User: Fold this.
Amino acid sequence: IAYGGPGFGLCALVGFAALFSLPQALVTAELSSAFPDNGGYSLWVQAAFGDFWAVQESYWSWFSGVVDSALYPVLLYTSATHLIGGLPLNSGAAEGNATAALSLASLGKGDFPDEARATLWSCLGDEDKSCGAEYLYRLLLLLAFTAPNCLSSALVGRGLVGLGLFVMSPYLALVVAALPRARPANFRLRPTKFKPAAMVSVAYWSLSGFDSVSTFAGEVEAPHRTLPRALLCGCLLMVVCYVLPLTAGVLADEEWAHWKDGSLTHVAQLVGGRWLGGWVLASSALSNWGLFSSELLEDSFQLLGMAEAGLAPRFFAVRHPRLGTPLLAILFQLVILSALIGFDFESIMCIDNFFSAAAATLEFAAAVQLRRRRPAMSRPFRIPCGTAGVAALVALPIVIALFVCVSTAMETRATLTIIVVGLAFGLLLYLPLWLRS
Assistant:
């Protein structure tokens, strides 16, 4: 909303869902019915393009998931600063810092558009101790979020089931409370900055990820019937759950041009008082824990599976002897996350989106390639069009994904550096397979 204005921003959300989310859901439904096994998109890419690209797909998806996990403690902390006075907020907090830098002191500055903005890592050595305090708060949230995954995967699964109603209810209350304060004139205000590339990046992070369900397609009963319905309903529900609270917030808060991550907590307090702000913050805490835990659960077992298949060091396949959790895989990811939480929300999102969009590009291409190379392959659910129709369906999503890759890689010099290093590491992962072959 802050990057494009309410009218353009809300239309962009709906348009993105129709042009990217829906095709991704349809491709996932077709290929999950053709490959009804755990492994999902890695199996599609392997069947379409061979082992090399299957390794890259697996690694890009895993790395994107790990980076994505770092977003949730950061998002919760930022939300808390809108409600709880006295919490330090340094990274990305200055005027104009809606997209903060992902820069380490050693990387210097360049001609990238948002290079010079502060992060916790660039100010930890300052005399002002607030950066250290903020990092400590984020680290404590990270450890609290991680602990249940170390103790019991079943506990995490049962905890996630009961979150849905509680998480959504305060936003329904926000919509109702905002109605008496609604000012339609707020829609006519112009944004202070127009950043279409950043807006697309936020929309991508918010409305992608339907392919994740494919990784446990083998656990779903009758996936050719269940998954298409669930994915299409999920796509529609997701759009409604974004559009309603955002529209209500814009109508009630004329300062929407200054929104950033966590601002709905402030809007809730504005329209309903501290009780509603606290309710939204509590909902945010649980929803962020749920998203973090499910992501960490998936990524830990994906790393464990890669180790068992010889695609990662064997020690990642070690489970805790009594709890059965992939403890070394979790701790390895915890080390990576401890570094990432020193960056701001949107900088982390840039790296996440790059690898996610790169993996999505391979998946869309695999759908077309499998229609060409294996036209007779059983597809209990089939997108109702031929190979040319599928190619046309995924053409625009591929363009969007490539645009996200380019725009996020060029956000700062550091994002480009980390992405290049990450891509190189993916090539190294294939080297043992190449040598054995």
In short: The first helix runs from residue 6 to 34. The chain has 15 helices and no strands.
